[in-house]
Amino acid sequence: MLSPVVTVGIFQKQPDPKAFSAGQVIFEEGQSGDEMYGILEGEINILVNGKVVETIEAGGVFGAGVLVGVKSRTYTAIAKVDSKLVFLDEKGFLFAVQETPMFAIEVMRSYSDRLSRLQRLL
Fold it and tell me: What is the pTM of this model?
């Protein structure tokens, strides 16, 4: 498993991080998308049906489902505190995997763990 420091290092190589203010919506359940997100700073709340089901901290990743065939977002992501995020589209994701193959395992593990937690809640 990659440490948050390594994950942040991968994402720090991406251009143009974007700042989100506390309470700002990053994406909403049901929206289409083509990017996953890495948290450089801050915390992101994950909501399903309007309820917080998880809080992801700096070094975490989210939104990867759209890179592996999920057609729309399965949850809403909102900045819990002021946060700085970077984005990876499919091309950027493939490059990160070439540079750090364990990154793919970490993303799959994160996605699988989140999916399992969400299924238990439903």
Answer: 0.80
